[in-house]
Amino acid sequence: MNADRFDHLPRIEATLNYLAPMAERPRNYTFDPPPGVPRSNSERESHIVGIRDARPAAADISLDREGFAVLQGASAVQDFWDEDEVRRVYYPEVQRAIAEATGASKVFIFDHTLRRRVRGAADRVPGTPRQPATGVHVDHTATSGPQRVRDFFGDEAEHLLSGRVQVINLWRPIRGPLRDAPLAVCDAGSVASGDLVPSDLVYQNRVGETYGVTYNPAHRWFYVPEMQPDEALLLKCFDSKTDGRARFAPHTAFEDPTAPADVLPRESIEIRTLVFHEA
Ligand code: OGA
Ligand code: FE
Q: Measured from the CB, is residue 169 less than 6 Å from ligand 1?
């Protein structure tokens, strides 16, 4: 666990929005809740952090140690906004890439999200595309990772959960170079368990559990400057292994203060997968 090997990497400084410590359990709605209920009961706390260039260290960064990875390889997809093409062409590419990166026996895609930045727009508003994430989070938790397996696999779930299971996202800009709202990823090995705060994410039909993340000066942040569509990030959002391997890699979009003002608005796609290894 020698993190000094990242000290030489070029870095920028930027502001990230963490969760402010709170007594109550954080609860965020994905839609307008009933009158009198706030959309979020939590407060943000901004911190300026150093964010390292992951590219020169890519070969030395791994899903099982840092909880993320930088992949090379273009997609054959012509139009990521064509849902049918994404399912037909992109899904199998992602399944192959994740199986290769992890040695998994089965990769199940359960969600994909396209984002297109619209300046000034809020996220999760009907009629506007999904916006970049504004706060540090992990999509799943020690509880909701296995719960997703039960949600999708019914009777088969307990058998699958007797083997190793991971939740891994594959994230890619769909045009580049990406300067607008790049994604920052935190080395899971720099995160203390107390930094991860289980939070409710309320949908119309279910309540998901994510981690909000409180500030810790030990956090080591990375990004891929001017990321191109032939590059992708793998983000681990859960691992059933509890033997010291990375389990949760926090991440968020951020404003790069060194970017010109007139950058191309970000467009990106992320695929969420359940990754199984034979029991
Ligand atoms: C993700 C994610 C945020 C963004 O891929 O899980 O949180 O801004 N993405 O793309
Ligand atoms: Fe996320």
A: yes
